[in-house]
Amino acid sequence: MSTMRSRPIAGAPSPLVSTAQPGVSGSLAVGSAVQVDTGKWSKAPKSFAYQWARCNANGRGCAPIAGDTAATHTIVPRDNAHALVAIVQARSASTARAVLSRATARVGGTTTTPPPPPPTGPVASALPTVTGAVQQGKQLTGAAGTWSGTGTIQYVFNWFRCDAAGAHCMSIHGATKPTYTQVAKDVGTTLGFAVRATDEKGTTSAYAGLVGPVAAPSSALYSTVQPAVSGTATAGQTLQVNPGTWSQPPTAYSYQWQRCNANGRLCAAVAGATGAGYTVSAADSGHALVAVVQATAGAATQPTVSTRVGVG
């Protein structure tokens, strides 16, 4: 009499599926920070959670690092001779899925993670941009940037609503045109603009820097031209941010520089970096930098994020 082995019964397909593995970027020197992105998903998750793990040099035998549950991890001496991974958990409604990021190189060996594979679709030589007044009821305009590819290039646009730090970004339903009129839900949030370019060889995505936070319609003070960062983005060089243009002349400004992932998302304040100028450090390698400029006019205050600059 033959026996039958039982196997798990397949359930219904999950509506939340990882389509591109999260990646880790940044310097692997002790005291520097690495950051994990969220990867790509079959539908836009509502939120993400993180857990870093320390592995052997080959990225195996991983163990969670207690309390290390942010999108960034600061390299410590204990990490030497190990690789690091992050568990990224995406959540949408009642569905949650967790995936492992790509492992870093061995800490104490090479200083950066391996470069990503070359693109198989169009290449953006100038990234998308967003212009317009950042206030509910007013229209923003996104530009696709400059692309090169094989044959005709077709573009698809998408606007996203994120929190003030550029995290927890959600695709805005129906916002698939180059222009977008800000609504009540946008007040206090930042907005992102993405472009998917497709040619004969494949599809590539590029992202404009965030704009916002969006001002309320009752506010007399709001950003009309985004502050811009200038300077050479290499370690030891100084960047400078201008205050941008506002709906009325501000009487004072304050500044806070932030370190973000390469797409200008998932930003965290750089401790002590509160001037209009900022000296780039080794910890900024592989990241984008922005400055939050807060303007004051009388009793009114309003912050806005600057353009971003990538650090090589």
Q: What tags apply to this protein structure?
A:
312 residues; Immunoglobulin-like; 0% helix; 3 domains; mainly beta; disordered N terminus; five-stranded antiparallel beta sheet; four-stranded antiparallel beta sheet
Give a summary of the structure in a few sentences.
This protein is mainly beta and 312 residues long. The protein contains no helices and 28 strands. The strands form nine sheets. Strands 23, 24, 26, 27 and 28 form a five-stranded antiparallel beta sheet that branches. Strands 6-5-8-9 form a four-stranded antiparallel beta sheet, with no helix packed on it.
Q: Can you offer a commentary on this structure?
A:
35% of the residues are buried. The strands form nine sheets. Strands 23, 24, 26, 27 and 28 form a five-stranded antiparallel β-sheet that branches. It contains no helices and 28 strands. The chain has three domains: 83 residues, Sandwich (Immunoglobulin-like), CATH 2.60.40; 85 residues, Immunoglobulin-like (Sandwich); 88 residues, Immunoglobulin-like (Sandwich), CATH 2.60.40. With 312 residues, the chain is mainly beta. The chain starts with 17 loop residues before the first strand and ends with a strand.
Topology:
Elements: E1 18-20, E2 24-26, E3 33-36, E4 40-41, E5 47-55, E6 63-64, E7 72-74, E8 83-92, E9 95-100, E10 123-126, E11 129-131, E12 139-143, E13 146-148, E14 154-162, E15 170-171, E16 179-181, E17 190-198, E18 203-207, E19 223-225, E20 229-230, E21 238-241, E22 245-246, E23 252-260, E24 268-269, E25 277-279, E26 288-297, E27 300-305, E28 309-310
Antiparallel strand pairs: 1-4, 2-3, 3-7, 5-6, 5-8, 8-9, 10-13, 11-12, 12-16, 14-15, 14-17, 17-18, 19-22, 20-21, 21-25, 23-24, 23-26, 26-27, 26-28
